[in-house]
Amino acid sequence: MSASKLAVYWHPDVLKHDPGRGCYEYEASPLMEVAEPHPETPERIVNIRSILQRGDISGQVDWRDGRHAERHEIERFHTAAYVDEVIEAEKHPPTRIDGSGTVVDKGSVDAVFAAAGTTVAAVEGVLATENLAAYALVRPPGHHAARHMADGNCIFNNLAIAVETALQNGCRRVAVIDWDVHHGNGTQSGFYDRADVLTISMHMPLGAWGPNHPETGEIDETGEGDGQGCNFNIPLPYGSGDQAYAKAMDELVAPVVRDFDPDLIVIACGQDANQFDPNGRNLLGMSGFRHLGTVARELASELCAGRLLLCQEGGYAITYTGFCMYAVAEGILGVAEPMEDPLAYDASIEKPETPFAAIDEVGRQWRALAG
Questions:
Q1: Which of 68, 96, 209, 311 is deepest in the core (most CB within 10 A)?
Q2: Is the CA virtual torsion 292, 294, 295, 297 positive or negative?
Q3: Is the pTM of this model over 0.90?
Q4: Smallest Cα–Cα separation from 296: which of 268, 323, 275, 267?
Q5: What's the pLDDT tens digit per position in 307-334?
Q6: CATH superfamily of this structure's domain 6-336+347-370
Q7: Catalytic: 203?
Q8: Per-residue pLDDT reduced to its tens digit, 235-272
């Protein structure tokens, strides 16, 4: 069953966060005459908003107002000391709060409170309405942020705050599927010892990248304590493409979610696996993203009365990110005649043998770890 409408939650304050210019996401290089905009720009989600408003599916998009979070809502996931750190950082702008590429500047606190609150409003809408698919169109992204620290352009983990909200409001189990091209390490670490949250991440094999990102994203990170067996990582080779993502979603992700039998499915909905993304290398087109949306919708309809929340994460190609999110929405809505991809290369040139073998190996290792 397809969703008849996609509820999109939006608050304009998410545009106030401006990470500035530099050497990609880092400090400007003295060797360069022109500093480039930080990749996590407001324009990337403005274009998503635009295509959802102007495309053929616009009549099936139900725009809803977001809001700022209350502090106690953010502290459902984050520590009070870390929330204080974020608020204090804005008093000394710009602050690289993770010591790397994550910037807090004037306007950032308004933006992160709006992003978190809008995502909470979206999950509250899903829980209050049978068969509602909702999308929190927010920034900055969140899935790298741990309970006590920032990482990877992420300040507050909007998705994780929404998961905690759902669990406090009647959900017994929540499944998180993260198809952002980077490992969802903050979400993984936040629920690593929990049996009520299933976390699955499909990502490039980048490994750990510093003190704020010690998780490797490898197959052997499966959870601990009560959460043992509730975390699944799917490291995918660079250049995997549409066919490999479809295989991973159909053969690895879907069966695990069915076994978990959640009351709610939450998607870390990044588009940085796309063919033109400056921060990703996995080469999906609109067709690949459409299939991800279709499977997410089918799982939600089958397992949890259609309750599905998508939370915007990465996606840094300012134009193609919008087209790829549009394709996800088409999959959610079950659109019979989807938009033609205006940019992607012909997927028939893909050579999926290597990623297919990697996906089969992930499945083999999962079975071995399960005993």
A1: 311
A2: positive
A3: yes
A4: 267
A5: 999 999 999 999 999 999 999 999 999 9
A6: Histone deacetylase domain (3.40.800.20)
A7: no
A8: 999 999 999 999 999 999 999 999 999 999 999 999 99
